[in-house]
Automatic annotation (TrEMBL):
Highest taxon in the source lineage: Bacteria
Lineage of origin: Bacteria, Bacillati, Actinomycetota, Actinomycetes, Micromonosporales
Name of this protein: Uncharacterized protein
Amino acid sequence: MGYQPPHGLQLVYDPNNGSCHFVLYSEPPGIGPGIALNGGKILTIDKTTDGKAVTAGSPYAEEWVQRLEPCAPDALHVALVGSKDAAALWHPCVYDDPQSPVAIAGDGCVCWQTFHDPVTWMPVAANHFRTVSGNHENWRYHTCSPLGFPDGERLASLIIDGGQIWIRNQDGTLHFLPEAYGAGYGTGYGGGGPTELARMIEKIVQQDGYDITPGTASGMPDRKILAWVSSPAAKHRQELSLDQLKRLRRTGMIT
Ligand SMILES: [Zn+2]
């Protein structure tokens, strides 16, 4: 059984932070029914070349960005960015038109580009920020993260990638690790982010890699898992198989 919305699920809309938290349900062909996703996921990419996001720093961000397909803005993109920025979805980037309404003084830019994720059918809106003269330039990808996977689908690995945590399914598909609203993840320090990740790893092991839904029970996670997630060893980029997560639960070590 996958994600079950809490009783009295509320739409939470915040045009000031440009994100909208909601539940979408999709049945992408080839994946099958049962995927549910929520709003509010933002991936920031700071490196750019010729106005395009460069993801060389992270092979996982690159894998995800590369699979996105450009498309015309639609109602789901408007829901992602909020009403304040909605009109800008239709304005060209300064690289394509220096006279664009979202261009600033000829070479600055605050445009939006729209895509969809062909794996999940989810909307993606990428916000380009470039200061005049280009001293600062980045892209923030606004999209939805999964609340669950089709019945029977199983986690193959959990990926620590800087501040971003990904998971890969047994068919090799990359997704953001499901995340409850307001409960983000972290590694390599003592605090709320690593505590939530440790609880999530415990839950993944308990579920044997099935039914990976966001949110964890309150209370302290397993001490061995938390000790590793909070340690410097957990900071660097690494992909942990389900067997390694089970070993971590048993022994406190991944090897
Ligand atoms: Zn732009």
